[in-house]
Amino acid sequence: MQLEIGEKADVRIVRVKEAKLTYPNLSAFFAEVRQLVEGGTRKLLIDLSAVTYIDSASIGCLMDIYRLMQDRGGAVKLAGVQPRVETMISMTGVHKLIDLHREEGTALEAFGPTGGGKKKGKADA
Q: How far apart are CA 13 and CA 108, in angstroms?
C-alpha cells in the first residue's frame, strides 16, 4: 500500500497513492492510521484524490478509523473524493459521519482556525 504522510498545522494528512482502495490493501492502510492515532494524532485528513474505486471493505475500514478517532476525541475528514467514490460513500450513509471534501484546502478549513476545532462542515460538492 503506497501512502504519503504529511502535516499542515496540527492536522496529519494521509495521502493514499493507489487507484483502488480494496480489501487486500486495507490492513496496511489501517495499521498506518492506527500508528498515527496512537502517536497522538487527533485531527486526521485522508486524501483520496488518487483513488477512483473503493469496495465495501474500505467503507468498513473508514468507519473503523472514524470510531478510532471518536474514541480518542479526534476527528477525521476525507479530501479529494472522486465522484464514483463519493457515490459509494453516500450510498452507505458514511457521509453523515465523516465530512467529505473535494479539495484538501476546504477540508483543512473545516477543522477550524489553524486546522483546529471540531467544526462540522458540509461536503463541498
A: 10
Domains and CATH numbers, the chain: 3-115 (3.30.750.24)
Q: What is the pLDDT of residues 47-56, one digit of tens each?
A: 999 999 999 9
How many angstroms from the chain centroid is the CA of residue 101? 10
Judged by DSSP in three states, 90 sits in helix
Model-wide pTM > 0.85: yes
For residues 15 and 6, is the Cβ–Cβ distance under 8 A? yes
- Convert the pLDDT of each residue in 99-113 to its tens digit: 999 999 999 999 987
Cβ-Cβ contacts under 8 Å for 117 (sequence gap 6 or more)? 111
What phi and psi, each to the nearest 5 degrees, are found at residue 47? -90, 115
